[in-house]
Amino acid sequence: MVEKIKATDGAVFRQLRHNHQLTLAQVADDHNSIAFISKFEQGKSNISFSRLTHLLYRINISVEEFVFIRDLQSGVVPTSNDPNFVYNTLTHRAFVEVLDYQDRFSTQEPTPADYAYFLKKEQEWQARYAQDHNRQTRFELISIQLFRLTMIDRVKQLNQPSPFKSVADAMAQLQALAKPVVSYLYSVEIWNYFELYWFRHLMVALPTATIQN
């Protein structure tokens, strides 16, 4: 079993080097000195991607394996066997948990407590986006807002008014909320994992023309 450590790149590299019974002197070469590797392992020096890949080659570890082990140590990858979990470094475990929570409502009715859950998550992601201004965080926030909006009519009291005037109005509001995602998808000529991921997750709120294109 791999010992649990603070999952910095340097600390994980040091652990893997030790597991492979390699000394600093054995790993060092003209590209990376003993002193540099030691500083990297202690978190005292940053490292370029090319130098890191070379170091990993020196200890017979692939880049993919290294990143997976690092994310496993930090909790991004669940330790239990989850058949629904697909590993990708762009996938945030915290957001996957929100998606898992949302999935249950395809077979059961939500409660006011469930609505409160999404309201709380929306506030959490608003704070995150205020900090990092990252496109992925923004799209995650939009998803959570969509989940919450589509739940309102299912949890409100009968005497409470609906925020939607009609089904058409509901779709218009959802599509307006998802507009930043649509604009982004139209701006990217060649889609990669990121674009396909968000197209799949937000398809329900995308205009028909976008889906057909």
Short description:
With 213 residues, the protein is mostly helical.
Explain what the structure shows.
This is Helix-turn-helix domain protein. GO terms for molecular function: DNA binding. Residues 13-66 form the HTH cro/C1-type domain. It is a single chain. The protein contains 12 helices and no strands. The model has no long low-confidence stretch (mean pLDDT 85). 15% of the residues are buried. It has 2 domains: 9-74, lambda repressor-like DNA-binding domains (434 Repressor (Amino-terminal Domain), Orthogonal Bundle), CATH 1.10.260.40; 93-212, no CATH class. Helix content is 62%, strand content 0%. The protein has 213 residues and is mostly helical. It is elongated and about 75 Å long.
Distance from first to last alpha carbon: 48 Å
Low-confidence stretches: none
**How many distinct domains?**
2
Q: What overall geometry do the principal axes of the alpha carbons give?
A: elongated
Structural class: mainly alpha
Listing every helix as H and every strand as E from the N terminus to the C terminus, the arrangement reads HHHHHHHHHHHH
Determine the number of helices (DSSP H or I, runs of at least 4 residues): 12
Quantity of strands, as a count = 0
How much of the sequence lies in strands comes to: under 5%
How helix-rich are the residues, as a percent range? Answer: 55-70%
- Average pLDDT metric: 85
Radius of gyration over all CA atoms, rounded = 23 Å
Protein name: Helix-turn-helix domain protein
GO molecular function, one term: DNA binding
